[in-house]
Amino acid sequence: MDLTALAIRHVLYPLWAAQSGSTRLRYLAELEKSQYWSREMLAERQWEQFRRMLAHAFETCPYYRAKFRAAGITPADLRSREDIDLVPTLTKEEIQEHPDEMVSSRYATRTLVRDMTGGSTGSPMQFYYEPERFESRVGAVLRHNRWAGWNIGDRAAVLWGAPQDMIAGRLRDRIRTWIQDRRLILDASELSEASMRNFATALLAYRPAVLQAYANTLGLFAQYIKAEGIDGIRPRGIVCSAEVLTTENRRLIEDTFGCRVFNRYGCREFAVIASECEAHDGMHINAENLLVEVLVDGRSRTGEDGEIVITDLRNFAMPMIRYRIRDVGRINSAACSCSRGLPLMELSGGRVTDFLRAANGSRVSGIVIATYVITGIPGIRQIQFVQDEPRAVTVRLVKGPQWLPSALEELTARTRRYLGEAMQLRIEYRERIPQEKSGKYRFSICNLA
After folding, report:
1. Residues whose CB is less than 8 angstroms from the CB of residue 107 and which lie 6 or more positions away in sequence, other chains included
2. Dihedral, 225, 347, 241, 445 alpha carbons, nearest 10
């Protein structure tokens, strides 16, 4: 029994939340009740929230007002759920070009949380939400974590990006981080035999209850564990996200670590979108916070593969209405055997990243490049990394209005920080970078044998 976990879960975390004014535990409690509402009740609630968000955006956001008028609609024209296709969709390019016009006039940006997407879809983007929306996002993540057996206070190990980007600050800040998020973060920005040996040593000593990792990174680590005959890393659950989880990788990971993998779909714009529960019948949509649709020939459909669009039902500061996330999937009509009313979805295409080969021969995850190289560099509309030679990478780049020569210098320096100073970078400026016919967008492509 992990007494520290119990102390954090039942004493320290609630005390911190009460003292700091955090409302995430209230959201968690609400979500754990509403997840068992009927699908009809959830859909009715979603439609009410969607119409409220639409009216708010029309009234307080200049860009939406102009956009809706150009489409010849007002919020009053939406009388039933079937009318949703009248509402125009939103692209990343629109947000990149009109960020100020999309912020509600009821909010000052200085009071908001400023965030930025990574580059796994090829198009980094800045956006805002209220501090209270941050709390409801965390509440949703905590609920979805519990489905994987990951509770507040549990020891977790994360094979993610550079740890220096995640934990810093004074002792007081580090203690608060420990209470909120008891994690061992392993720097998976570079994968070599030495680094994976260090991962294994750290995990054997730490004995985490849960592992969280990029799907492809954990697949590669599982291959290493099997090849080396290492035993004893036995979490009770594994959460994979950020990349497409293939059937082969799921089977390999579960066989290697002796527990189930819980697939998760999320992004920076919305946090957790959908996750598997203990029944593994599909991924439950975070339906109390998000309206997820699949468009087929421009119309919202269930049971067919199409383009995913998402509306944040709680971000009133910078509404995202029918946002095209550049992934492909389907919403299933079947119910889950777990009895939750939350609708199920699955991904059939989307962001795909290869490992790139660094100058020293180690492998670097495309997701790491997307997260730690691209984020924060202004003026990148789309980007793609292609490696055909061991010591050269072609960077296909679509420039946005904020692009400056200094951005290229920063991009080059950051890329070489991960791929090595000896890596030659060839910049190709493009008008656009298309998705593949399958609907997948490949952020990084490695053609090396």
Report:
1. 128, 130, 316, 317
2. 70
DSSP secondary structure code for residue 195 in this structure:
H
* pTM for the whole structure: 0.83
Residues 388/378, Cβ–Cβ less than 8 Å = no
CB 392 within 8 A of CB 424: yes
Closest CA to 424 of 352, 354, 355, 356: 356
At CA 54, angle to CA 50 and CA 57, rounded to 5? 135
Q: Are domains 3-18+136-267 and 37-131+286-346 of this chain identical in fold?
A: yes
In tens, the pLDDT along 232-249 reads 999 999 999 877 788 888
- Its CATH architecture, for the domain 3-18+136-267, is 3-Layer(aba) Sandwich (3.40)
- Token pair in block for residue 423: 């890596």
Which pLDDT tens digit goes with each residue over 57-112? 999 999 999 999 999 999 999 999 999 999 999 998 899 889 999 999 999 999 99
The CA distance from 77 to 70, in Å, is 14
Is CATH 3.40.30.10 the classification given to domain 351-446? Answer: no
